[in-house]
Amino acid sequence: MRSNESFASAIRLRGMKLTRQRQLILEVLESSRGHPDAEMVYAKAKERDPRIGFATVYRTLALLKQLGLAEEHNLGEGHGHFEAVDKTKPHFHFTCLKCGKVVEFVSPQILRTTQSLCEKKGLLVTDIHLHFSGYCRHCRPAGSECAEKP
Amino acid sequence: MRSNESFASAIRLRGMKLTRQRQLILEVLESSRGHPDAEMVYAKAKERDPRIGFATVYRTLALLKQLGLAEEHNLGEGHGHFEAVDKTKPHFHFTCLKCGKVVEFVSPQILRTTQSLCEKKGLLVTDIHLHFSGYCRHCRPAGSECAEKP
DNA sequence: GTAAATGCAAACCGTTTGCTGTACA
DNA sequence: TGTACAGCAAACGGTTTGCATTTAC
């Protein structure tokens, strides 16, 4: 909940209001371990505020994205998945095409390479969405050429 | 149109039929320079076959994806964009958040890093979707910290 | 008190599906 | 000629919007 104060100040800075629902949705997102979609956020929020509506969830998720407190990812399901941002830990996602498992990755090297590409082309990169898909250790067809190291 | 024969054989191998519409949609995709969405593909196809329908476009794009002849990308617009695959040239996309321009990237280093991550975790990667967003050279706010090299 | 946000339902938009007629093999 | 496909329109699912009401400030 440490981001609650920064949320409050960012909101007030813009002349917006810190409502019960907005706080709730941020809390739901921060306490979610995985990558909930809007429906899951709605369901979890509804447990604590049965009167909350879908529109509020979507509007608040959009607001959190704008404020840099949440990220939306396309994990290959055709709809958005959300995640509270921890700026100290940028990471990427792998989705198994068979079992649907999502694995998170950290790769400082990819961040570095991206930064260097950005500099070369004069681009200011604000977001990196790197999404792998394929087959995880357990769903991989036997004899596939990607060797597993012990 | 060099992929037409491989398209024909791939199709026949599966007991499917090589229709006028399927050939047309592949040709439209191959002759498109950018990253058309389904609607743009439909519009271009319709110029040459006014009776073609949306369903055929979607079904054929899905087929081309399955056969590895087309890729679908999320370029941050909330709907799919398509591209004919040139297997010799895997690349990534940057979208400018202000002017919408899409820049293509090649980075063997990122491919290598990805491959190495894949090996370490025992994952078989079949697809890499790397999408940057931010501001291009012309839309970048002045004084932004990402230095441009001459 | 007043501007902004909520909740509801309807609209929206990209995509998929069921069905009947058409055309490839 | 038989089977897969096309075209149409209706359904679908996720998301957005308009509007009356509520709420934070």
What topology does this entry show?
The structure is a homodimer of 150-residue chains.
Chain A: H1 3-13, H2 20-30, H3 38-48, H4 54-66, E1 70-74, E2 80-84, E3 92-96, E4 102-105, H5 108-121, E5 124-135
Helix pairs in contact in A: 2-3, 2-4, 3-4
The first copy, chain A, binds a DNA duplex (25 and 25 nucleotides) through residues 12, 15-22, 37-39, 51-56, 58-59, 78-80.
Give a written overview of the molecule.
Two copies of one chain form a homodimer. With 150 residues, chain A is an alpha+beta fold. Chain A folds into two domains: 1-86, Arc Repressor Mutant, subunit A (Orthogonal Bundle); 89-140, Ferric-uptake regulator, C-terminal dimerisarion domain (Dna Ligase, domain 1). Chain A contains five helices and five strands, in the order ααααββββαβ. In chain A, strands 4-3-5 form a three-stranded mixed β-sheet, covered by helices on one side. In chain A, strand 1 (70-74) and strand 2 (80-84) form a beta hairpin. The interface between A and B is large, with 38 and 38 residues. Strand 5 of chain A pairs antiparallel with strand 5 (124-135) of chain B, so a sheet runs across the interface. The structure holds a DNA duplex (25 and 25 nucleotides).
Would you count the extended β strands of chain A for me?
5
State the end-to-end CA separation of chain A.
38 Å
The largest inter-chain interface, given as chain pair and residues per side, is: A-B, 38 and 38 residues
Number of domains of chain A: 2
Tally of individual helices of chain A:
5
Largest sheet of chain A: 3 strands, mixed
Mean pLDDT of chain A: 89
Q: From the 3D coordinates, which CATH architecture of the largest domain in chain A would you assign?
A: Orthogonal Bundle
Fraction of residues in H or I helices of chain A: 40-55%
Structural class category of chain A: alpha+beta
Low-pLDDT windows of residues of chain A:
145-150
Q: Give the percentage of residues in beta strands of chain A.
A: 15-25%
- Determine and state the CATH class of the largest domain in chain A: Mainly Alpha
Name the overall outline of chain A.
flat
Q: Please list the strands of the largest sheet of chain A in the order they lie side by side.
A: 4-3-5
Quaternary arrangement of the chains shown? Answer: homodimer
Can you tell me the CATH topology of the largest domain in chain A? Answer: Arc Repressor Mutant, subunit A
Could you give the order of the helices and strands of chain A? Answer: HHHHEEEEHE
Provide the gyration radius of chain A in Å.
Answer: 18 Å
CATH superfamily of the largest domain in chain A: Winged helix-like DNA-binding domain superfamily/Winged helix DNA-binding domain
